[in-house]
Amino acid sequence: MYDLTGFQRDLLYVIAGLDEPHGLAIKDELEDYYEKEIHHGRLYPNLDTLVEKGLVEKGQRDRRTNYYTLTRRGKREIDARTEWEAQYVDA
């Protein structure tokens, strides 16, 4: 996870917290968090990067809608990151 941007890590966390979210649901969650608009040109290339890295799987809900889920590797990466952060941040 060390080679991901902060935005990509946030994408992973949102996907982990939702049940097979589609792109617009992910976008809505991040816009609420960032308190600004997330453009499609930023969202989808970063989702594709996570798929290419094997952290996220992309499935097709219908002809126009994809959904995203964490892979086992993605879950392990989040768990490892959480353990690493716990060393430095008192929860």
TrEMBL record:
Write the protein's name.
Answer: PadR family transcriptional regulator
Highest rank taxon of the organism? Archaea
Give the InterPro entries listed for this entry: Tscrpt_reg_PadR_N, WH-like_DNA-bd_sf, WH_DNA-bd_sf
Q: Which species? A: Halopenitus salinus
Which N-terminal residues, if any, form the signal peptide? none
Entries under Pfam families matching the protein: PadR
User: In this protein, which residues make up the domain named Transcription regulator PadR N-terminal?
Assistant: 11-79
